[in-house]
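Design a sequence for this backbone.
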Protein backbone atom coordinates (compact mmCIF):
# COMPACT_ATOMS: atom_id res chain seq x y z
CA UNK A 1 0.00 0.00 0.00
CA UNK A 2 3.05 2.25 0.32
CA UNK A 3 3.90 1.94 -3.38
CA UNK A 4 3.11 4.96 -5.54
CA UNK A 5 2.79 5.08 -9.33
CA UNK A 6 0.89 7.66 -11.36
CA UNK A 7 0.94 9.69 -14.54
CA UNK A 8 0.48 13.41 -15.13
CA UNK A 9 -1.25 14.28 -18.42
CA UNK A 10 -1.26 17.78 -19.99
CA UNK A 11 -2.61 19.26 -23.22
CA UNK A 12 -1.44 22.82 -22.63
CA UNK A 13 -4.71 23.82 -20.96
CA UNK A 14 -5.85 20.86 -18.89
CA UNK A 15 -3.88 18.74 -16.41
CA UNK A 16 -4.86 15.40 -14.89
CA UNK A 17 -3.04 13.31 -12.30
CA UNK A 18 -4.02 9.69 -12.90
CA UNK A 19 -3.28 6.77 -10.55
CA UNK A 20 -1.60 3.66 -11.96
CA UNK A 21 -1.90 0.01 -11.00
CA UNK A 22 -0.11 -3.34 -11.22
CA UNK A 23 -1.59 -5.72 -13.80
CA UNK A 24 0.44 -8.84 -13.07
CA UNK A 25 3.42 -10.42 -14.85
CA UNK A 26 5.59 -7.37 -14.18
CA UNK A 27 3.23 -5.01 -16.05
CA UNK A 28 2.26 -1.60 -14.64
CA UNK A 29 -0.38 0.55 -16.32
CA UNK A 30 -1.80 4.06 -16.22
CA UNK A 31 -5.16 4.51 -17.96
CA UNK A 32 -6.35 7.95 -18.95
CA UNK A 33 -9.56 9.10 -20.64
CA UNK A 34 -8.95 12.50 -22.29
CA UNK A 35 -12.03 14.59 -22.97
CA UNK A 36 -10.41 17.18 -25.23
CA UNK A 37 -8.95 16.71 -28.70
CA UNK A 38 -5.36 17.60 -29.40
CA UNK A 39 -1.84 16.63 -28.40
CA UNK A 40 -1.32 15.35 -24.86
CA UNK A 41 1.97 14.86 -23.05
CA UNK A 42 2.52 12.63 -20.04
CA UNK A 43 5.20 11.77 -17.50
CA UNK A 44 5.09 9.16 -14.75
CA UNK A 45 6.13 9.48 -11.13
CA UNK A 46 6.76 6.69 -8.64
CA UNK A 47 8.74 5.78 -5.57
CA UNK A 48 10.10 2.90 -7.69
CA UNK A 49 12.95 4.32 -9.78
CA UNK A 50 12.20 2.08 -12.80
CA UNK A 51 8.65 3.49 -13.06
CA UNK A 52 9.49 7.18 -12.60
CA UNK A 53 10.15 9.71 -15.34
CA UNK A 54 8.64 7.74 -18.24
CA UNK A 55 7.46 10.38 -20.71
CA UNK A 56 5.65 10.47 -24.03
CA UNK A 57 2.82 12.01 -25.99
CA UNK A 58 -0.22 11.08 -28.05
CA UNK A 59 -2.93 12.78 -30.08
CA UNK A 60 -6.54 12.61 -28.94
CA UNK A 61 -8.78 12.53 -32.01
CA UNK A 62 -12.54 13.03 -32.24
CA UNK A 63 -14.81 10.41 -30.71
CA UNK A 64 -16.24 7.69 -32.98
CA UNK A 65 -19.95 7.87 -33.88
CA UNK A 66 -22.18 7.00 -30.96
CA UNK A 67 -19.53 7.70 -28.30
CA UNK A 68 -20.64 10.63 -26.18
CA UNK A 69 -18.35 10.39 -23.16
CA UNK A 70 -19.11 9.77 -19.49
CA UNK A 71 -22.50 10.64 -17.99
CA UNK A 72 -22.62 13.43 -15.41
CA UNK A 73 -25.22 15.57 -13.66
CA UNK A 74 -26.76 18.25 -15.89
CA UNK A 75 -29.17 21.01 -14.95
CA UNK A 76 -29.24 20.02 -11.26
CA UNK A 77 -31.80 17.22 -11.61
CA UNK A 78 -30.86 15.50 -14.87
CA UNK A 79 -28.02 13.69 -16.64
CA UNK A 80 -26.04 14.28 -19.82
CA UNK A 81 -22.95 12.88 -21.48
CA UNK A 82 -19.74 14.91 -21.60
CA UNK A 83 -20.59 16.14 -25.11
CA UNK A 84 -23.98 17.44 -23.94
CA UNK A 85 -26.10 14.55 -25.23
CA UNK A 86 -28.95 14.00 -22.72
CA UNK A 87 -28.95 10.70 -20.85
CA UNK A 88 -32.33 9.40 -19.68
CA UNK A 89 -31.70 6.28 -17.58
CA UNK A 90 -33.75 3.16 -18.17
CA UNK A 91 -32.02 0.77 -15.81
CA UNK A 92 -32.02 -2.83 -14.68
CA UNK A 93 -29.95 -4.99 -12.35
CA UNK A 94 -27.72 -7.93 -13.22
CA UNK A 95 -25.80 -8.24 -9.98
CA UNK A 96 -23.80 -11.34 -10.91
CA UNK A 97 -23.18 -10.36 -14.52
CA UNK A 98 -19.49 -11.27 -14.56
CA UNK A 99 -19.60 -14.26 -12.20
CA UNK A 100 -21.45 -16.83 -14.31
CA UNK A 101 -20.53 -19.36 -16.98
CA UNK A 102 -19.55 -18.23 -20.47
CA UNK A 103 -22.84 -19.61 -21.80
CA UNK A 104 -25.02 -17.76 -19.28
CA UNK A 105 -23.07 -14.52 -19.60
CA UNK A 106 -23.32 -14.67 -23.40
CA UNK A 107 -27.06 -15.30 -23.17
CA UNK A 108 -27.43 -12.33 -20.81
CA UNK A 109 -25.53 -10.01 -23.14
CA UNK A 110 -27.63 -11.13 -26.10
CA UNK A 111 -30.76 -10.32 -24.09
CA UNK A 112 -29.42 -6.91 -23.06
CA UNK A 113 -28.52 -6.08 -26.65
CA UNK A 114 -32.17 -6.53 -27.66
CA UNK A 115 -33.63 -4.79 -24.59
CA UNK A 116 -34.33 -1.08 -23.98
CA UNK A 117 -32.03 -0.76 -20.98
CA UNK A 118 -29.21 1.77 -21.12
CA UNK A 119 -27.91 1.24 -17.56
CA UNK A 120 -27.08 -1.91 -15.60
CA UNK A 121 -26.34 -2.13 -11.89
CA UNK A 122 -23.76 -4.87 -11.36
CA UNK A 123 -21.53 -6.05 -8.52
CA UNK A 124 -17.75 -6.05 -8.71
CA UNK A 125 -17.52 -8.81 -6.10
CA UNK A 126 -19.41 -12.10 -6.51
CA UNK A 127 -22.76 -12.45 -4.77
CA UNK A 128 -24.21 -15.32 -2.70
CA UNK A 129 -28.00 -15.06 -2.57
CA UNK A 130 -31.09 -17.14 -3.46
CA UNK A 131 -31.13 -17.95 -7.20
CA UNK A 132 -27.47 -16.86 -7.36
CA UNK A 133 -25.61 -19.44 -5.28
CA UNK A 134 -22.72 -20.39 -7.54
CA UNK A 135 -18.99 -20.26 -7.04
CA UNK A 136 -17.45 -17.53 -9.22
CA UNK A 137 -15.04 -18.44 -11.98
CA UNK A 138 -12.54 -15.91 -10.67
CA UNK A 139 -11.95 -14.22 -7.36
CA UNK A 140 -10.83 -10.60 -7.11
CA UNK A 141 -7.86 -11.70 -5.00
CA UNK A 142 -5.31 -14.46 -5.00
CA UNK A 143 -6.23 -17.25 -2.58
CA UNK A 144 -4.30 -18.60 0.37
CA UNK A 145 -3.62 -22.33 0.52
CA UNK A 146 -6.72 -22.77 2.69
CA UNK A 147 -8.90 -21.05 0.06
CA UNK A 148 -9.36 -17.76 1.90
CA UNK A 149 -8.82 -14.41 0.20
CA UNK A 150 -5.35 -12.89 0.22
CA UNK A 151 -6.56 -9.28 0.34
CA UNK A 152 -3.04 -7.96 -0.28
CA UNK A 153 -2.82 -9.52 -3.77
CA UNK A 154 -5.31 -8.73 -6.54
CA UNK A 155 -6.07 -11.30 -9.23
CA UNK A 156 -5.57 -9.64 -12.65
CA UNK A 157 -7.53 -12.42 -14.40
CA UNK A 158 -10.65 -11.42 -12.47
CA UNK A 159 -10.30 -7.82 -13.60
CA UNK A 160 -9.45 -8.70 -17.21
CA UNK A 161 -12.77 -10.53 -17.42
CA UNK A 162 -14.65 -7.64 -15.81
CA UNK A 163 -13.04 -5.18 -18.21
CA UNK A 164 -14.03 -7.24 -21.23
CA UNK A 165 -17.64 -7.20 -20.07
CA UNK A 166 -17.50 -3.43 -19.51
CA UNK A 167 -16.32 -3.01 -23.09
CA UNK A 168 -19.18 -5.17 -24.34
CA UNK A 169 -21.69 -3.10 -22.39
CA UNK A 170 -20.22 0.07 -23.90
CA UNK A 171 -20.57 -1.38 -27.38
CA UNK A 172 -24.29 -1.88 -26.64
CA UNK A 173 -24.65 1.69 -25.34
CA UNK A 174 -25.11 0.56 -21.72
CA UNK A 175 -23.76 2.37 -18.66
CA UNK A 176 -22.26 0.14 -15.94
CA UNK A 177 -23.26 1.23 -12.44
CA UNK A 178 -20.55 -0.66 -10.55
CA UNK A 179 -21.51 -1.74 -7.02
CA UNK A 180 -18.27 -1.67 -5.03
CA UNK A 181 -19.50 -3.40 -1.83
CA UNK A 182 -22.51 -5.52 -0.90
CA UNK A 183 -23.58 -7.69 2.06
CA UNK A 184 -24.49 -10.90 0.19
CA UNK A 185 -21.19 -12.67 0.62
CA UNK A 186 -19.72 -15.89 1.96
CA UNK A 187 -16.08 -15.45 0.92
CA UNK A 188 -14.94 -12.50 3.03
CA UNK A 189 -15.37 -9.51 0.70
CA UNK A 190 -17.88 -7.77 2.96
CA UNK A 191 -15.80 -7.84 6.13
CA UNK A 192 -12.27 -7.06 4.98
CA UNK A 193 -10.15 -4.89 7.31
CA UNK A 194 -10.24 -1.12 6.67
CA UNK A 195 -6.77 -1.10 5.10
CA UNK A 196 -7.90 -3.69 2.54
CA UNK A 197 -11.13 -1.81 1.82
CA UNK A 198 -9.21 1.39 1.13
CA UNK A 199 -6.60 -0.33 -1.03
CA UNK A 200 -9.34 -2.05 -3.05
CA UNK A 201 -11.16 1.23 -3.73
CA UNK A 202 -8.01 2.95 -4.97
CA UNK A 203 -7.14 -0.06 -7.14
CA UNK A 204 -10.59 -0.28 -8.74
CA UNK A 205 -10.67 3.44 -9.50
CA UNK A 206 -7.19 3.26 -11.04
CA UNK A 207 -8.12 0.22 -13.17
CA UNK A 208 -11.61 1.17 -14.28
CA UNK A 209 -11.82 4.96 -14.09
CA UNK A 210 -10.84 5.38 -17.75
CA UNK A 211 -13.92 3.45 -18.93
CA UNK A 212 -16.36 6.09 -20.15
CA UNK A 213 -19.45 4.01 -19.26
CA UNK A 214 -18.57 3.44 -15.58
CA UNK A 215 -20.50 4.84 -12.60
CA UNK A 216 -19.55 4.19 -8.96
CA UNK A 217 -22.04 2.91 -6.39
CA UNK A 218 -20.39 2.49 -3.01
CA UNK A 219 -22.82 -0.25 -2.03
CA UNK A 220 -25.93 -2.17 -2.71
CA UNK A 221 -27.94 -1.78 0.51
CA UNK A 222 -25.15 -0.14 2.51
CA UNK A 223 -27.19 -0.28 5.73
CA UNK A 224 -27.26 -4.09 5.64
CA UNK A 225 -23.46 -4.21 5.85
CA UNK A 226 -23.33 -4.31 9.62
CA UNK A 227 -19.53 -4.40 9.88
CA UNK A 228 -19.32 -0.95 8.26
CA UNK A 229 -20.11 2.32 10.05
CA UNK A 230 -21.21 5.71 8.74
CA UNK A 231 -17.63 7.02 9.14
CA UNK A 232 -16.50 4.08 6.96
CA UNK A 233 -18.90 5.08 4.19
CA UNK A 234 -17.81 8.70 4.48
CA UNK A 235 -14.18 7.59 4.13
CA UNK A 236 -15.01 5.37 1.16
CA UNK A 237 -16.79 8.19 -0.65
CA UNK A 238 -13.93 10.59 -0.05
CA UNK A 239 -11.39 8.02 -1.30
CA UNK A 240 -13.27 7.29 -4.54
CA UNK A 241 -14.01 10.94 -5.22
CA UNK A 242 -10.41 12.05 -4.62
CA UNK A 243 -8.85 9.16 -6.55
CA UNK A 244 -11.00 9.53 -9.69
CA UNK A 245 -9.61 12.20 -12.05
CA UNK A 246 -12.46 11.46 -14.49
CA UNK A 247 -15.22 12.50 -12.06
CA UNK A 248 -17.65 9.64 -12.64
CA UNK A 249 -21.06 9.64 -11.00
CA UNK A 250 -20.93 8.40 -7.39
CA UNK A 251 -23.85 7.24 -5.24
CA UNK A 252 -24.79 5.08 -2.26
CA UNK A 253 -27.74 2.68 -2.52
CA UNK A 254 -29.86 1.88 0.56
CA UNK A 255 -31.86 -1.00 1.90
CA UNK A 256 -34.15 0.63 4.48
CA UNK A 257 -32.31 3.74 5.65
CA UNK A 258 -31.66 6.29 2.93
CA UNK A 259 -28.09 7.61 2.93
CA UNK A 260 -27.28 11.29 3.55
CA UNK A 261 -27.13 12.55 -0.02
CA UNK A 262 -26.25 16.06 1.06
CA UNK A 263 -22.56 15.10 1.31
CA UNK A 264 -20.55 16.91 -1.37
CA UNK A 265 -19.07 13.80 -3.00
CA UNK A 266 -22.52 12.22 -3.58
CA UNK A 267 -23.54 13.17 -7.12
CA UNK A 268 -27.07 11.74 -7.21
CA UNK A 269 -29.63 9.90 -5.07
CA UNK A 270 -29.79 6.15 -5.68
CA UNK A 271 -32.94 4.96 -3.90
CA UNK A 272 -34.59 1.62 -3.11
CA UNK A 273 -38.23 2.16 -2.24
CA UNK A 274 -41.55 0.92 -3.50
CA UNK A 275 -43.16 4.07 -2.13
CA UNK A 276 -40.34 6.13 -3.61
CA UNK A 277 -41.51 5.22 -7.09
CA UNK A 278 -44.45 7.56 -6.61
CA UNK A 279 -43.84 10.92 -8.32
CA UNK A 280 -44.63 12.99 -5.24
CA UNK A 281 -42.05 11.05 -3.17
CA UNK A 282 -39.39 11.64 -5.81
CA UNK A 283 -40.21 15.35 -5.83
CA UNK A 284 -39.79 15.47 -2.05
CA UNK A 285 -36.37 13.86 -2.28
CA UNK A 286 -35.30 16.22 -5.06
CA UNK A 287 -36.28 19.19 -2.95
CA UNK A 288 -34.45 17.79 0.08
CA UNK A 289 -31.13 17.01 -1.63
CA UNK A 290 -31.20 19.30 -4.68
CA UNK A 291 -29.75 16.44 -6.73
CA UNK A 292 -31.07 13.95 -9.31
CA UNK A 293 -33.12 11.10 -7.83
CA UNK A 294 -33.04 7.63 -9.36
CA UNK A 295 -35.33 4.87 -8.13
CA UNK A 296 -32.72 2.18 -8.70
CA UNK A 297 -34.75 -0.58 -7.08
CA UNK A 298 -38.54 -0.63 -6.86
CA UNK A 299 -39.02 -4.43 -6.94
CA UNK A 300 -39.11 -6.70 -9.97
CA UNK A 301 -41.58 -8.55 -12.11
CA UNK A 302 -41.59 -12.26 -11.36
CA UNK A 303 -43.18 -15.17 -9.56
CA UNK A 304 -40.75 -15.92 -6.73
CA UNK A 305 -41.77 -16.09 -3.08
CA UNK A 306 -39.93 -12.93 -2.07
CA UNK A 307 -41.72 -9.58 -2.06
CA UNK A 308 -39.01 -7.95 -4.14
CA UNK A 309 -39.57 -10.32 -7.05
CA UNK A 310 -43.26 -11.03 -7.43
CA UNK A 311 -44.71 -8.01 -9.20
CA UNK A 312 -47.20 -8.86 -11.93
CA UNK A 313 -46.56 -7.76 -15.50
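Sequence:
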Amino acid sequence: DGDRFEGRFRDGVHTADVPGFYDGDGVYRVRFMPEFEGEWHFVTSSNARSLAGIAGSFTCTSAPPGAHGPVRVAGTFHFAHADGTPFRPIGTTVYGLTHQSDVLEAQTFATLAAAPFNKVRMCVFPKWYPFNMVEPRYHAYALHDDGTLDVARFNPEFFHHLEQRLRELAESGIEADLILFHPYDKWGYSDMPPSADDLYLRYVVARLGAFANVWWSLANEYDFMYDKTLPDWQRFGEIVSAADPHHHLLGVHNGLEVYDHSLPWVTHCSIQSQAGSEPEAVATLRDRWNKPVMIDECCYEGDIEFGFGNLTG
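The mean pLDDT is 94.
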